[in-house]
Design a protein that fits this description.
The complex is a heterodimer.
Chain A lengths: L2 H4 L2 H25 L1 E6 L12 H4 L3 E6 L16 E5 L7 E8 L4 E2 L13 H13 L10 E2 L4 E5 L9 H4 L2 E2 L3 E10 L18 E2 L12 H7 L1
Antiparallel strand pairs in A: 1-2, 2-9, 3-4, 3-9, 4-7, 5-6, 5-10, 7-8
Chain B lengths: L12 H4 L42 H26 L1 E6 L13 E6 L13 E5 L7 E8 L4 E3 L11 E3 L4 E5 L9 H4 L2 E2 L3 E10 L3 E4 L9 H6 L1
Classes of the chains: A alpha+beta, B alpha+beta.
Chain lengths: 224, 226
């Protein structure tokens, strides 16, 4: 440490304060674009995340990779990833769920995951989705086809999870990042507990369609 | 004593480095009244710059550090300004045609309205496209959560079914009804995708112009004029 800082307390406080301030400000673009750590709460992702939330209320801290390649390349989102995304129903809240289906996939609805209530809008929308897909005697080929640019997300805890079964496929533009590591609690620090869990929802993988689904003018020219 | 240039109080290279000035015989009288007795150097030439035997002060290194510091600081501040306050972007496309030209029009987007805060029906918003990753679009809000909107464009072969905009979503339509891909194609737009509201439009021909509220309530007086 330079002499001037040791022997000048005012300068020392000033320098430390400004350095702290600048480091805090630098966190904003870092969190927006690169990496972020945040606490996850709720039971919907147990047993992968917050396994004891319903009894102890213990939350998990997760490190998110926000430099996500959203394209269809192998480096982008994969089935089984845990994603952080803005809730489609509550714009100022974030949600954490598992990617079950990518665009073009055929997701077979799990009747256990039907939203609660007989007349709630979510359950009625789910019924409409299921009958349209033909899972329960409808006209479709069975399963919901995830539209282009969207993903199908589900919580690991099927009893209580507000997910794509309630609000349908989620736009990939809403995705903020995907989980890298668990940071807290200490005994699970550095692990990726979601990799040991396999979703029971049946998914038939579809061929990734062209970006946007419909052919744009440039694409039409390119393909002749 | 040297006066070091500081950017908003960010310490300069000499402060941030770990080097220990071994020889320093010029001190500011006000802050350092008594000279340091620990100085053992026997150098006779007065040094105006603190320096060390281990890390000689290099003008080039100092310049690099200073440049990096200014670059990072301005990048951080610009990111915050563009992401959370205002951004000016070039709009392209014919979907908003009477309001925003097909080319060469710049839109000033206020990020204070991001994620649908304080938005009203008739506002022109910029949003991330829900189907096409990495693309942005500018359209006009026609319905907010709970409003009833027509699903297609009636009279043009589209469906005239009414639907209620779901919670947390909005219904956006381009001003150029016939040449616009909007909520009629991709459905209700999550408000979380709204990045901001277009408050001004700029073009080099016409300068700055305000955006008029496109949707006025029908009033009886206007009929009585005729």
């Amino acid at each position: 440490m330079p002499h001037s800082l040791i022997h000048n307390p005012t300068k020392f406080v000033y320098t430390t304060a400004t350095l702290t301030l600048w480091l805090t400000i630098a966190l904003i673009p870092l969190n927006d674009n690169l990496i972020e750590a945040s606490f996850v709460q709720g039971t919907s992702m147990s047993p992968s995340l917050c396994p004891s939330y319903h009894t102890t209320g213990r939350r998990d801290a997760v490190l998110w990779n926000k430099w996500v390649d959203h394209s269809n390349s192998p480096k982008g989102l994969k089935r089984g990833d845990i994603v952080l995304f803005r809730s489609p129903t509550r714009p100022d809240c974030n949600a954490v769920k598992r990617v079950v289906g990518l665009e073009g996939d055929r997701v077979f609805l799990d009747p256990r995951r039907r939203p609660e209530g007989d007349v709630s809008p979510e359950s009625r929308a789910w019924d409409a989705m299921a009958s349209q897909a033909g899972d329960f005697g409808g006209g479709g080929g069975g399963g919901v086809v995830v539209p282009p640019g969207h993903i199908w997300v589900e919580g690991d805890y099927w009893r209580k999870s507000q997910d794509s079964n309630a609000y349908g496929p989620v736009s990939k533009s809403l995705v903020l990042g995907k989980a890298m590591l668990v940071l807290w609690p200490w005994d699970r620090c550095g692990t990726r507990p979601w990799e040991r869990y396999r979703s029971a929802t049946r998914v038939v993988e579809g061929k990734a369609e062209r970006k946007g689904g419909e052919m744009g003018l440039v694409d039409a020219i390119r393909s002749g | 004593m040297l006066r070091r240039r500081c950017l908003f109080g960010l310490p300069s290279f000499e402060h941030a480095s770990l080097r220990v000035p071994l020889t320093r015989n010029i001190r500011r009288a006000s802050t350092q009244p008594k000279p340091q007795p620990t100085v053992t150097s026997t150098s006779t030439t007065p040094n105006t710059r603190p320096h060390s035997r281990f890390l000689p002060s290099s003008p080039r290194l100092s310049l690099t550090y200073s440049f990096t510091k200014y670059f990072l600081a301005s990048a951080i501040l610009l990111h915050i300004f563009f992401e959370y306050f205002f951004v000016l972007e070039l709009a392209w496309g014919i979907s908003m045609l009477p309001t925003i030209a097909a080319a060469n029009d710049w839109v000033l987007i206020s990020k204070l309205y991001r994620r649908g805060r304080n938005l009203h029906v008739g506002d022109v918003v910029s949003f991330k496209h829900p189907d096409k990753m990495g693309e942005y679009a500018v359209k006009r809000i026609v319905g907010l959560p709970g409003d009833f909107v027509v699903e297609g464009s009636p009279g043009k072969g589209g469906s005239s079914r009414m639907m209620q905009v779901p919670v947390g979503h909005c219904w956006v339509i381009g001003d150029n009804l016939t040449w616009s891909r909007d909520s009629r194609t991709f459905g209700a737009l999550p408000l979380a995708l709204v990045t901001g509201k277009v408050v001004r439009v700029f073009s080099f021909r016409q300068g700055w112009r305000k955006l008029n509220h496109g949707l006025q309530p029908a009033c009886a007086e206007s009929d009585a004029v005729d």
